[in-house]
Amino acid sequence: MARSIKIDPITRLEGHGKIEIFLDDDGGVTDCYFQIPELRGFERFVEGRPIEELPRIVTRICGVCPASHHMASAKAVDGCFGNEVAPLAHKLREMYYQAHYIHSHIAHFYALAAPDFVCGPDCEPATRNILGVVAKVGLEIGGRVIKARAMAQEIQTILGGRSTHVVWCLPGGVSKGLSKEELERIKPMANELYDFSLFSLQLFKDVVLANPGYVDLILNGPYTLNVHNMGLVDANNAPNFYNGQVRVVDYEGKEIHRYHAHEYTQYVAEHVEPWTYLKFPYLKQRGWKGFTEGIDSSLYCATPLSRLNVADRMATPKAQEAFEEMFGILNQKPCRALLAQHWARLVEMVQNAESLLDFCADPEITGPEFRVVPQRITGEGFGIVEAMRGTLTHHYTCDEKGICTSANLIVGTTNNNAPIQMVTKKVAQTFIKPGVEVTEGVLNRVEMAFRAFDPCYSCATHTLPGQMPLEAHIHQGGQLVKTLKQNL
Amino acid sequence: MCIGIPGKILDATEGSLRMGRVAFGEVIKQVSLALVPEAQVGEYVLVHAGTAIQVLDEAAAQEVLDLLEELAESMEDRP
Q1: Whole domain around residue B31: which residue ranges?
Q2: Which of A6, A250, A368, B74 has its Cβ near the most Cβ atoms within 10 Å?
Q3: Most B-contacting residue of A144, A164, A341 (CB-CB within 10 A), to test interface
């Protein structure tokens, strides 16, 4: 009898994180490896497909930040068709992207950032206040949060024509423009989102910054790394999420690199380790120097905080005020404290909301020239945008018929793979000491480090903070001496 | 590479912090539904870090599941 064996791709992609911790004879940590399930094969999967299909396919696979992939992919496809793009299309795409950022940042601040700080006995004073935020979000502010997210979503729907799996960007532009009537519908929502972004920033200040214990946790906990920063900036070195150049600034504030998307292979390379499928991007011109901190390190973070660290200023006035206030209180720029990510995200959201209002006021935004139909295939394209979780690069080549011959993606979280490894080790070294019993609490602290990056790993995606399935193996003298499991 | 797998809502508890069980194929997770009050049992959601961030209609969810199936098959014969 014929038998068919079905392998459920979802079951295969689901998994749990594994941490291998190696101790010396005295019980101190010598090494720590963090292994996580990874989706492989996507780049080869798209080879052989018409290149213009890629912006539509990527949004289906990467549903957590679909607009980021849609935009980066569209820019790379524009390049494959000679990079002749209607200027209005760039404006419309960027306008859309502001709404997408707001939509995403609201979810992260209100749903994810708060629970992150609930972990660990060290942060008990802060925890009480953060729990207060959660309670308020649920009971009083919750409705406002949900309404703001819905408005950010609605703006994307109006611009892009559908709410999920957007198919709007085409080579040379977008498939529909913005009518005057549609713009009038967007304007009041954009105004409300502006108010909401200021409200969120104030909430952070009132509830979080008012607690010295919390500021101490951000600045003085083990969650700091001396690695460099990456982000997209405009000509004035203000953050730009859709356009601009990649700027890399060391952790003392000195510019290391500034480059265009098509130059990325000269500046970023990916290191491979034998113990994981993950790749570790690093600054190519410095060479791979291992998982090391320090001013000569070749490693960088690409996160909301990195984006503000590489910027000299914000692009809009209220965001500028918030930027100055944040770095003034942190008293450090660039800031190396990873837990300041959540504050940086809110400062970004203010710029997103102000930019959205600027696009609404642009007299050209409802114009008719939203696409240039490509006339030639040039065969190679590069698209870089700032995804919410880090600088996102798409690089495609195609043949003379427009069939994809290669694709390379460096996704947001991937940039941060090495820093995530390093902070994991640092946290392990901080809390696993000779003579101290290793407990499940260690896993909580590790997860807190990991969550600051808001990574999109398959094991993290479907799991609530504090419930991520993790397994830790402690090795000593060549033997496995202890196994700890969390939520397995 | 990150992934957004649609999950089907099996049940939901009401209250200020709405939760529900969501099935991703054979894997069932407890997920926060606080951000998607409109989501109904039987509908599909996209989930990030244990929080449902978007409701998908069945056709959109099926598109993703088909594509994931295709991706899985394309990986079968590749190292």
Answers
A1: 7-76
A2: A250
A3: A164
Residues A107 and A20 in one domain: no
- Domain CATH number, residue B61: 2.30.30.140
Please report, as a single letter, which amino acid is at residue B65: L
CA distance A206 to A210: 6
Could you read off the pLDDT of A103-138 as tens digits, one per residue? 999 988 877 766 555 433 344 434 433 445 555 555
Domain total in chain B? 1
- What range does the domain containing A19 cover? 14-37+416-486
Tell me which chain B residue has its CA closest to the CA of residue A389: B2
Q: Is residue B1 part of a domain?
A: no
Q: Are A44 and B74 in contact (CB under 8 A)?
A: yes
Q: How many CB pairs under 8 A join A and B?
A: 156
Token digits for A3? 């038998």
Mind listing the pLDDT tens digit for each residue in B29-59? Answer: 888 888 888 899 999 998 887 788 889 888 8
Q: How far is B8 from chain A (nearest CA, A)?
A: 12
For residue B2, being part of any structural domain is answered with no
User: Do A427 and A366 sit in the same domain of this protein?
Assistant: no
Q: Do B4 and A107 touch (CB under 8 A)?
A: no
Instruction: For A462-481, write each residue's pLDDT tens digit.
Output: 566 556 677 778 788 888 87
Q: Which helix (H) or strand (E) holds A20?
A: strand A17-23
- Asked if A99 and A155 sit in the same domain, the reply is yes
Alpha-carbon separation of residue A64 from A369, A455, B54 (angstroms):
31, 10, 9
The ipTM assigned to this model is: 0.77
Average pLDDT, chain A: 85
